[in-house]
Structure formats: C-alpha cells, structure tokens
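Case study 2.
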Amino acid sequence: MTTAWPGFDNERFADAATVMKALGDPVRLRLLSEVAAHPGGEACVCDISGPFDLSQSTISHHLKVLREAGLVTSERRSTWVYYRINASVLQQLSGFLEDLSAVQGESRSCEDWQ
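Prediction:
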C-alpha cells in the first residue's frame, strides 16, 4: 500500500510506530529524560534508578526497549552499561510528526490511495 503524500511510505510509518511504542510508557519517557539530563549526557542504571520505585533489573529492561527502538545507545564498561541519547532518532520522529502535521486537512480522493 502506498500513500498519496510524498515522503510517507510503509517503512517510515513502521519506524515511527516503533519509536512511539517505546515512548508510550511513562517510565521509559522518564528514563529518557533522566539520561538526557545526566551530567555528560550518559548514565548507567546505578546513576538513574534513584527517582524510580523499581528494581534495577526492571529499569534495565525499560532501557533495553529504548535501545532496541534506537532511542538510546549503550556501551559496556566493566560491569556497568552506560546509556546515551540517540538524538538522530528523536530528530527523525520530530520530522515525521512535522510532516504529518503539514498534511493535516489536505483533501484526498479514494483514487489517490490506489
């Protein structure tokens, strides 16, 4: 299925959905914020688990979801894994939402979708 709007294809929709699904959990949104705000722009679970009433393993699971969606990158150092925001994925999502907003209200006929 193709779309009638230039710049939108199934892959772009799927990529945006993956990122939005990862961001659809309040804990993951807070974790993303904690990592971004941490000095040096990176943090390990031990650095950011304080504000959460969750185990380190649960926080690690949420960070794994963010990593799999491309929202954070990770680097193992000794026994700890450090996470850093992947700004390019956030910029891609922002661009997707801006493009989607730009087509709001544009009229399309059924023939445009065939």
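Helices lie at 10-23, 26-37, 45-48, 56-68, 87-102.
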